[in-house]
Write a structure and sequence with these properties.
Helices cover 27% and strands 28% of the residues. It has helices at residues 8-30, 48-62, 108-119, 151-156, 218-223, 258-261, 264-277, and strands spanning 35-43, 65-72, 95-101, 124-127, 158-159, 163-173, 187-195, 199-200, 205-214, 230-242, 247-252. A 9-stranded mixed beta sheet has the order 2-1-3-4-11-10-9-6-7. Strands 5-8 form a two-stranded antiparallel sheet. The N and C termini lie far apart (52 Å).
C-alpha cells in the first residue's frame, strides 16, 4: 500500500508562509526609526506650495523618513515662521531642510534662534533662496566672520547676494568621490538661476560648479553695443561644517523652478545631502542599512 503524501504539500506551504512572515517581522524590528525631517518652506518668488509637496514626496520615496512641512503661504521677503519663535524649535528633528525665501527678515534675535539650533548640532540642508535669506547691513560686500550680519552666511558656508537670468546651467561635479556626488553624472538644467559667489569661506567643500552663458544686460549694451555673452561660473553644490559641534551643513543653489525640484537627479542629490548631514550615507553614495527605501 502506497503512503499518503498529499497532506504534506499544504503543511509545507504553511511553513513557508509562516517563515516568510516571521522574516518580515524580524526585518521590521531591525529597521531603524524613520529620520525626522523638518521642511521649512515659504516666502518670496517661488511656488513653495507645489515644491514643498514635491520635496516631501520625493524624499519619503527615497528614504526611510518622515517629512514634517512648516509652510507659510505668504509671498513676501518678510515671511516668517511661527516655529522659529520657540528656542527649542528643532527639538525632535534629525535634520532641517531650509527652503525659505526671507531676504528682508532682519531681526537678530529671530535669526539667532535658528542658528543656535544648528550650532548646537542639528544638521541642515539649504535649498536655493535659503542662501539669500536673513541678510542685513552691507551684505553685498564680503562679510567678516563674527560680524553681526555674517551669521547666516557662516552657517551656509558661501556668501551669495544675487543671481543672473533664468537660463540653462551646466552642472559639473568637481568632487566625484564625495558620498553625496559619487556616481552622479553632469547634467544641464532647464532655465534656472545661477547664484553668485561673493566669497567661499574656509572649510567649505565645493562639490559641483555651474556654468551659464549670460547675454549682456541693458546697461552693458548701453556702454558697449558690441558686448558679447559671457560665461558665468559659481559653486552650486557644497558641504560645510558649522560651529563648535562641527554640524554638517549641505547646500545647493539649484531649485528655482518646479520642473527642477521634480527632477529625479535633483531629488537624489537632496536625499543624499540629508543622509550625509546625519551621518547615514555610505562612502559609495548609498543609504546605510535601514535608511533607504530600496
Amino acid at each position: 500500500m502506497k503512503p499518503i503524501v498529499k497532506p504534506l504539500l499544504p503543511i509545507t506551504f504553511l511553513v513557508t508562509v509562516l517563515g516568510f512572515a516571521l522574516a518580515q517581522d524580524a526585518a521590521k524590528k531591525d529597521k531603524p526609526e524613520p529620520l525626522k525631517i523638518l521642511l521649512v518652506a515659504g516666502g518670496c518668488c517661488h511656488d513653495y506650495a507645489t515644491q514643498s509637496k514635491l520635496l516631501k514626496a520625493g524624499i519619503e520615496e527615497r528614504l526611510n523618513a518622515e517629512v514634517t512641512v512648516e509652510f507659510n503661504p505668504a509671498k513676501g521677503t518678510d515671511t516668517t515662521f511661527p516655529i522659529y519663535e520657540n528656542a527649542e524649535w528643532a527639538k525632535g528633528y534629525d535634520v532641517v531642510l531650509h527652503d525659505e525665501c526671507s531676504a528682508s527678515v532682519t531681526d537678530p534675535a529671530y535669526v539667532k534662534r535658528i542658528l543656535d539650533a544648528h550650532k548646537s548640532g542639528t544638521p541642515a540642508v539649504n535649498l536655493h533662496c535659503a542662501m539669500h535669506s536673513y541678510r542685513w547691513g552691507n551684505y553685498r560686500e564680503p562679510v567678516k566672520i563674527s560680524d553681526d550680519n555674517a551669521g547666516w552666511y557662516e552657517m551656509i558656508g558661501i556668501q551669495s547676494t544675487g543671481h543672473g537670468p533664468q537660463l540653462p546651467i551646466g552642472i559639473s561635479f568637481s568632487d566625484a568621490d564625495h558620498p553625496t556626488t559619487k556616481g552622479m553624472e553632469n547634467w544641464t538644467t532647464i532655465n534656472e538661476e545661477l547664484y553668485n559667489n561673493v566669497q567661499v569661506f574656509d572649510g567649505t567643500h565645493a562639490l559641483a560648479t555651474g556654468k551659464q552663458l549670460q547675454s549682456p544686460g541693458k546697461k552693458a549694451l548701453e556702454s558697449d553695443p558690441e558686448a558679447k555673452p559671457r560665461e558665468a561660473t559659481a559653486v552650486v553644490v557644497w558641504a560645510n561644517e558649522y560651529g563648535p559641534e562641527k554640524t554638517r551643513i549641505f547646500s545647493t543653489t539649484l531649485g528655482h523652478n518646479n520642473e527642477t525640484v521634480a527632477d529625479d537627479r535633483y531629488l537624489d542629490l537632496v536625499a543624499r545631502g540629508l543622509l550625509w548631514s546625519v551621518g547615514k550615507l555610505a562612502e559609495d553614495g548609498t543609504a546605510m542599512a535601514g535608511y533607504g527605501n530600496e
